[in-house]
Amino acid sequence: MLQERISDLSGYVEPDRVRREVYTDARIFDLEMERIHERMWIYCGHESQVPRAGDYYTVQIGRQPMLMVRGKDGKVRVLYNRCPHRGNMMCGDRHGNAGEFFRCSYHAWTFHHDGKLRSIPMMESGYQGTRFGKGNPDCSMKPAARVESYRGFVFASLSPEGVSLKEFLGASRIAFDDMCDRAPEGEVEVVPNCFRVIQHSNWKIFLENQLDALHPSVTHQSTGRAAHEVEKEIARKTKKGEAPLSYHMLSAFATVTIDKWDAFQTLNYPYGHCILTGYMGLRPQDPDTLAYDKIMIKAYGKKRFEEIVGVNIHHVLIYPGLSVQSPLQQLRAVRPLGVDRTLTEIWHFRLKGAPEAIYRRSLAYYNLVNSPATLVNADDLENFWKCHQGLSSDGGDWVTFGRHFGRDIEKPGVVETGPNMGTSEAPMRNQMKAWAKYMEGAR
Ligand code: FES
Ligand SMILES: [Fe+2]
Questions:
Q1: Which residues contact 320 (CB under 8 A, 6 or more apart)?
Q2: Model pLDDT for residues 246-260, shown as the tens digit of each residue
Q3: 83-107 average pLDDT score
Q4: Count of CB atoms situated within 10 Å of the CB of 41
Q5: Using CB atoms within 10 A of its CB, is residue 54 exposed (0-12), middle (13-18) or buried (19+)?
Q6: How many CB atoms neighbour CB 52 within 10 A?
Q7: Nearest ligand to residue 369 Cα
């Protein structure tokens, strides 16, 4: 069937390069939605987005409008946002509270929070003797085939078959463990609401950029330099000779020069997930950090505390739709809208039980690095758009991922970049390897 629709898809992906149509062909996009986004585990949201019974949050999975809802039993479910009567979307708002039950705005069919049909106006007179009514599952809102959560992060798969969430996430679970373990109470809480950005480029261009250690000191150089100048100026004027940590978040783009990025490492896992090790030195000895450390030591003991804050990762990419920066409690969820349109939701979280100042640090990174207003994000967005434009042209057939190709260290279940090869394009090769498998029908 695949071959009928797109001839010889296997020729589109080679270990070190990919055909440009993979990013620009609408037929390939449709197959991606069918075989990847509407089949694999996709992040829906955090449980704290729906704290009370009846709370719902709408979310796009592949091409499907879905909603995440908490029931009276406390359980979080994911349902298709569609009325079984004549197909009306149940919830037109992005989020809200359904009250005691969902009520369709068209003809007032009502549904319990688990999607089961509750009532139809004049059901007896209108449907007696027909096949429609409470006994017919087609008259209830359809649930996602599978829903599981890991440490409060809810995922759904629209396919009844496939590996469990835990197995799918594998080593990338560290994203959620690292985020939650840094909370004295072992949990995080979402900060409503998120930033939403629509990028005029293919979804894979965003994901390939996430662990691209070669680009920050080039793409974000001007931002980094400007921040570094201000940082030095402030340092000169203060007694201790230090600028607030938030300046460091931006100046690192200039001070961590292109050659230094090779010193980091990427770890590449099955299903397309990848990890970039840490680089920013986020353990300053300021009073805020020391106060936080004290609370953490009380909660976990000295040994466990050292283990938790010693986790050395900066970025975890969970293919095909999530980019997590756990030490700063941020994540970006990727929602493809079309072959050249991608929505990203940019969320950040509070560490439960941590002092306000630690939250402010996360907020600063959220605003300064990940928000639509920052130059960092704008620099990336411009590249993404330009990449998509270039790939839509006849100027060449291939996207190349050849940097340090053939020098990766293959170990059971992980491909590591070699010593001093942090700028390897191994993460992109790993993503495309997984992509090809998914497109062949692997689950
Ligand atoms: S479409 Fe929902 S009640 Fe008619
Ligand atoms: Fe970037």
A1: 36, 37, 40, 42, 203, 207, 272, 334, 434, 435, 438
A2: 888 899 888 888 888
A3: 97
A4: 27
A5: middle
A6: 9
A7: 2
Give the separation between CA 307 and CA 64, rounded to whole angstroms.
41
CB-based pocket (< 6 A), ligand 1: 83, 85-86, 88, 104, 106-107, 109
**Which residue has tokens 């449980």?**
47
Mutation pick for ligand 1 pocket among 79, 90, 106 (CB with most ligand atoms within 8 Å): 106
- What is the Å distance from ligand 1's center to 90 Cα? 8
For ligand 1, mutation pick of 79, 82, 107, 123 (most atoms within 8 Å of CB): 107
Which tens digit of pLDDT belongs to each residue from 356-386?
A: 999 999 999 999 999 999 999 999 999 999 9
DSSP secondary structure code for residue 443 in this structure: -
Instruction: Phi first, then psi: give them for residue 253, nearest 5 degrees.
Output: -65, -25
Calculate how far, in angstroms, residue 86's C-alpha sits from the geometric centre of ligand 1: 5
Alpha-carbon gap, residue 327 to 269, rounded angstroms: 20
* Secondary structure of residue 80 in the 3-state scheme: strand
Confidence (pLDDT) at 280: 54
**Rounded distance from Cα 223 to ligand 2 centre (Å):** 11
Atom of ligand 1 nearest to the CA of 104: 2
Q: What residue type is assigned to position 400 of the chain?
A: T
Given pLDDT bands bounded at 50, 70 and 90, which one contains residue 2? very low
Pocket test residue of 79, 81, 83 for ligand 1, highest count of atoms within 8 A of CB:
83
If you write DSSP's letter for every residue of 377-440 in order, what string do you get?
Answer: HHHHHHHHHHHHHHHTSSS-SEEE--TTTT--EEETTEEE--TT-TT-SHHHHHHHHHHHHHHH
3-state secondary structure labels for all residues of 121-172:
CCHHHHHCCCCCCCCCHHHCCCECCEEEEECCEEEEECCCCCCCHHHHHHHH
Q: From atom 4 of ligand 1, which residue's Cα is the shortest distance away? A: 107
Which pairs from 49-53 meet CB under 8 Å and 24+ separation? 49/95, 49/190, 49/192, 50/76, 52/97, 53/113
What average pLDDT score do residues 19-34 get?
A: 96
Burial 260-295 (b: 16+ CB within 10 A, else e): ebbebbbbbbbbbbbbbbbbeebeeeeeebeebbeb
Contact 200, 340 (CB under 8 A): yes
